[in-house]
Automatic annotation (TrEMBL):
Gene3D superfamilies found in the cross-reference section: HUPs
UspA domain: residues covered: 15-149, 207-344
Record protein name field: Universal stress protein
Organism: Nesterenkonia natronophila
Pfam families registered for this protein in UniProt: Usp
């Protein structure tokens, strides 16, 4: 069944992978290669590095020699990965460029179907959870961007443990109360049980899509349906909002309890509309929806501990006009421990 839209049909069938020689970019290569093989796409490996600024002209000859050496090293690295891809039967091209890595990948994304990048690379700034390159690409890419995090393993052999969110030092986000308020139907598929994850927030083997008010979601839902088909996993449409009218955590005041149905109604309606769209466009895909009392970033970040994939838009709820990456999207990218696919989403 071909779900490719006319808009995407205009783009070359290319998976773009940003490479910098780090372990993060190696993971991005493996994921990008898997996507290219499953979809029958070509692979484009791009390696870039930032040109150092020199103020003394006497260093120009040395700088030129340095640039030649670095470009040659990048080309050699890319050829090695390209050989692996060609052996796997995937047509591959490479580009070694001098320039801003983030900006270069954004330009390359104009002619790609999806871009893949590691969550952290050699170009990150100390203290930032999301690398500068992956953050820039997710915010400005012209195609969906898949951000691949570090791998994780259970720290015990006696019981299955989900990884913790990647929180900054002193971040109390993990203590945020989250509770399921309403859902379309219970999960039908078999899930693993994690000792440190509640049943309500266990999204094992599911592709989770963050559905937000005020954004045009058809493109994101289409991409989500294609992704779920590709990995052969059920889809969970998730929305969340703190239902305390005062905006503070704690029991809902009695005087506001009557307003809770009104507060959640637009979220439920959008989830129902999204589920209806999925049933029409992807009738053979299992999809359900859930609405939570909690922040969207909190629910989606917690879901990343067990989900197969998280899909979000660039403009998350709470973002400011003019910002290409909303506050929810930034938080989820920073805290998520599973791959996150970021889809450009315009405002209504």
């Amino acid at each position: 069944m071909n779900h490719t839209s006319a808009v995407n049909g205009e783009r070359p069938s290319i998976v773009l992978v940003g490479m910098d020689g780090s372990t993060g970019s190696e993971r991005a290569f493996r994921v990008g290669l898997k996507i290219a093989r499953r979809r029958g796409f070509a692979l484009r490996l791009v390696g870039t590095f930032l040109r150092p600024v020199m103020t003394d002209s006497s260093y120009v000859p040395l700088m030129n020699q340095y640039l030649d050496t670095v470009v040659n090293e990048i080309q050699e690295m890319l050829r090695g990965y390209a050989s692996q891809a060609e052996e796997a039967g995937v047509r591959t091209t490479t580009r070694a460029l001098v320039g801003d890595p983030g900006g270069t990948l954004v330009d390359e994304s104009k002619s790609a179907r999806v871009a893949v990048v590691g969550k952290r690379g050699r170009n990150r700034f100390a203290g930032r959870f999301l690398g500068s390159v992956s953050a820039h690409l997710a915010a400005h890419a012209h195609c969906p961007t898949l951000v691949v995090p570090e791998e994780w393993e259970s720290d015990t052999s006696s019981e299955l443990q989900a990884p913790a969110q990647q929180l900054a030092h002193g971040d109390d986000a993990a203590d945020e109360p989250l509770s399921l308020i309403e859902e379309s139907k219970p999960r039908a598929h078999k899930r693993r049980v994690f000792a440190n994850v509640s049943d309500q927030l266990n999204f094992d083997s599911e592709v989770v899509v963050g559905v937000d008010l005020g954004t045009k979601a058809d493109e994101m839902l289409r991409v989500a349906g294609e992704a779920a088909h590709m990995v052969n996993r059920p889809l969970a449409l998730v929305s969340a909002s703190p239902l305390n009218a005062d905006g503070h955590w704690g029991p809902n005041p009695v005087e506001h309890n009557i307003e809770i149905p009104n507060l959640r109604r637009p979220y439920i309606e959008q989830l129902q509309e999204s589920a209806h769209y999925m049933s029409e466009q992807f009738p053979d895909l299992t999809a359900r929806w859930q609405f939570f009392d909690g922040t969207p970033a909190g629910v989606l970040s917690e879901a990343s501990r067990t989900a197969e994939l998280i899909i979000i838009g660039t403009r998350g709820h709470g973002g400011f006009p003019g910002l290409l990456l909303g506050s929810v999207s930034q938080a989820v990218l920073n805290r998520a421990v599973c791959p996150v696919l970021v889809v450009p989403t315009p405002k209504h």
